[in-house]
Write a structure and sequence with these properties.
The complex is a heterodimer of chains A (about 260) and B (about 280). Chain A has about 260 residues and is α+β, with helices and mostly antiparallel strands. Chain A folds into three domains: about 5-60, no CATH class; about 70-155, no CATH class; about 165-260, no CATH class. Chain A has twelve helices and twelve strands. Chain A has a four-stranded mixed β-sheet with strand order 4-5-7-6. A three-stranded antiparallel β-sheet of chain A has the order 1-3-2, with no helix packed on it. Chain A has a three-stranded mixed β-sheet with strand order 10-12-11, covered by helices on one side. In chain A, a hairpin with a 2-residue loop joins strand 8 (about 135-140) and strand 9 (about 140-145). The radius of gyration of chain A is 23 Å and the shape is elongated. By secondary structure, chain B is α+β, with helices and mostly antiparallel strands. Helices cover about 45% and strands about 15% of the residues of chain B. Chain B has nine helices and seven strands. Chain B has helices at about 15-25, 30-45, 60-65, 90-95, 170-180, 185-200, 200-215, 230-245, 260-270, and strands at about 55-60, 75-80, 105-110, 115-125, 130-140, 150-155, 160-165. In chain B, the strands form two sheets. A five-stranded mixed β-sheet of chain B has the order 1-2-5-4-3. In chain B, helix 5 packs across helix 7 (about 200-215) and helix 8 (about 230-245) runs antiparallel to helix 9 (about 260-270). The chains are: A alpha+beta (about 260), B alpha+beta (about 280). The interface of A and B includes residues 66, 98, 117 and 255 of A.
Chain lengths: ~260, ~280
């Protein structure tokens, strides 16, 4: 009986798959265009033993049998980048909600990756990568480069399509200031250093909702230009205009505050 | 030449068993961990002499633990049964006992509000990774309408636990009020779960009165309360937008079709009064 017949009977397929799996684990966990036949990769993905993150990119378990989470994968794919926005805030326990959308600030463009219901976007923002306030977070066998809470919140306010909702951000500020992990002073300093009227408007409004006080410096920066800032991504339609902060809001102040979780 | 001694594979430990059990159940080990921790905290709180008989649990955690919902959240909501003030120090004390310290590493008290108090609990992750933060909220804005019931569930570790829980029909009425207030996709999912998996026909009949009573609470004010049915439709549209965006809804199972969820929402709308 020659080897061709053995293959037809399926007798050589299983050992080959096991060999391939052992190789993937040993050289993993990430593989870009692995030098393996397509049928092997497809069989392993279908069997749930490895994951296909995007075209040509595969994730194998570690030697201990753990699959890395998407934020940890992102740190391997973009070592200079960092996890930020709403995902970073949830990961650091500033809200009781979960997320399936993660976003990483990077210095170069990359395609998004998905793992089950979870999705991770790479946001090219080279200027921000250089001066961001980042720390390394270790959990188990994972290492994640992650923005500090103040940095993640400032990023989310500058690019609100990666935030979940406005009431949720108020909830995060409430939790963060209550537990001492966020401070209004640090947030204000970050906004003033960025000198962005859009950031000053969103942050000033957020702090006013939470504390009831208007920050004079943020207000001055917010009034520096005559245009209006939309809370794009935090509610698509504009229903109310807030002239103090020159903001176009998706809902009234009263409505936003009522929707904040206790 | 040095001989390398071959290491024996390590035997099963609590952590490896937890990972194995999560794999058997088809959930992430982090989710199993969280269910274990929330279940233990719920039990610890009602065992404390100062809180025993005063607190009962509600919210998404109970929907998951008691009613097997597939939505994941990291909070534990509790209420004072008679609507009396709860001393935050009693909660801190209940979570600082020797047995509590196996689970809770640190309790951070948030600013109390007139209607409740919340805590951030830094918990020991049983799977051995970094700590896990869980939010505990205790609310006393209103007394319970129906007497709480005892609910039992088995912790994933195997030990049974019995805790006082707000009745499912009252929790559903509170969920309708939350939906009218904030209109999130997660609220829509919970209402769909109550409608299709939890509530009995007798409980459905009780809902109309309960929703009215919950909505007339003066502490939790619903914007646009002059016409609750118009408000309900606005919140349906908002929840639909969020549902499509994919933000904010994390479930362990398959995401239901919006058409099914919307059908359930319309049934709840049918039990909501137009005016109060």
């Amino acid at each position: 009986m020659n080897s061709h017949n053995l293959n037809e009977l399926g007798l050589t397929q299983m050992p080959k798959l096991e060999q391939a799996m052992a190789w993937l684990v040993e050289h993993g966990p990430l593989h870009v265009d692995p030098d393996l036949p397509n049928w092997m990769l497809k069989a392993l993905v279908r069997g749930g033993r490895i994951a296909r993150l995007r075209r040509g990119l595969y994730l194998a378990p570690t030697a201990e049998g753990h699959m890395l989470s998407l934020p940890a994968v992102a740190t391997l794919l973009a070592p200079k980048g960092y996890l930020s926005f709403y995902g970073a805030l949830t990961l650091q326990g500033l809200t009781d909600q979960e997320t399936t959308r993660w976003a990483v600030v990077t210095d170069a463009r990359q395609g998004s990756i998905t793992l089950g219901q979870q999705r991770l976007d790479f946001v090219p923002w080279p200027r921000r990568v250089r001066d961001a306030d980042v720390r390394t977070h270790r959990r188990g066998d994972e290492t994640i480069r992650i923005a500090t809470p103040a940095q993640a919140l400032a990023d989310a306010l500058e690019a609100p399509r990666y935030a979940r909702s406005w009431p949720e951000l108020v909830h995060i500020v409430r939790n963060g200031t209550g537990s001492g992990r966020l401070s209004a002073r640090a947030l204000r300093a970050r906004a003033l250093a960025t000198a962005s009227p859009a950031l000053a408007r969103r942050l000033g409004f957020l702090l006013e909702l939470e504390t009831g006080k208007v920050d004079a410096q943020l207000s001055a920066l917010a009034q520096r230009s005559n245009n209006w800032t939309r809370l794009a991504g935090l509610g698509e339609k504009t229903r109310v205009r807030d002239s103090r902060w020159r903001l176009e809001l998706p809902r009234s102040r009263e409505d936003l505050l009522a929707a904040v979780r206790e | 030449m040095t001989s390398k001694k071959k290491r024996k594979p390590a035997g099963p430990t609590f952590r490896t068993e937890l990972a194995r059990r999560a794999k058997d159940l088809g959930v992430r080990d982090e989710d199993l961990d969280r269910a274990l921790i929330i279940g233990q905290i719920a039990g610890l709180l009602v065992q404390d002499p100062a809180l025993k008989g005063k607190l009962a649990h509600k919210g998404a955690a109970m929907l998951r633990l008691v009613d097997q919902s597939e939505r994941l959240s990291r909070d534990l909501d509790s209420g004072e049964i008679r609507g009396d003030h709860v001393d935050g120090r009693a909660v801190v004390r209940a979570l600082s006992t020797a047995s509590a310290k196996r689970v809770v590493l640190r309790v951070v008290t948030n600013r109390p509000s007139p209607n409740g108090i919340s805590f951030l609990l830094e918990c020991r992750a049983l799977r051995g990774a970094a700590t896990m933060t869980i939010q505990l909220s205790i609310n006393w804005s209103e007394p319970f309408i129906l007497p709480p019931v005892k609910a039992s569930y088995v912790l994933p570790g195997g030990q049974p636990i019995t805790i006082p829980v707000m009745q499912a029909v009252e929790r559903a009425a509170e969920k309708v009020r939350a939906f009218l207030t904030r209109g999130e996709a997660s609220d829509a999912y919970d209402l769909w779960w109550y409608e299709t998996r939890v509530l009995t026909p007798t409980e459905h009949l009780k809902l109309l009165g309960l929703i009215r009573r919950k909505c007339t609470n003066t502490v939790v004010r619903i914007p646009g309360a002059s016409d609750l049915l118009v408000r309900f439709d606005a919140m349906r549209a908002q929840a639909h937008e969020e549902w499509q965006s994919g933000h904010g809804l994390v479930i362990a199972g398959t995401k239901p079709d919006w058409a099914d969820v919307d059908r359930a929402l319309l049934r709840f709308k049918g039990r909501t009064p137009r005016t109060l």
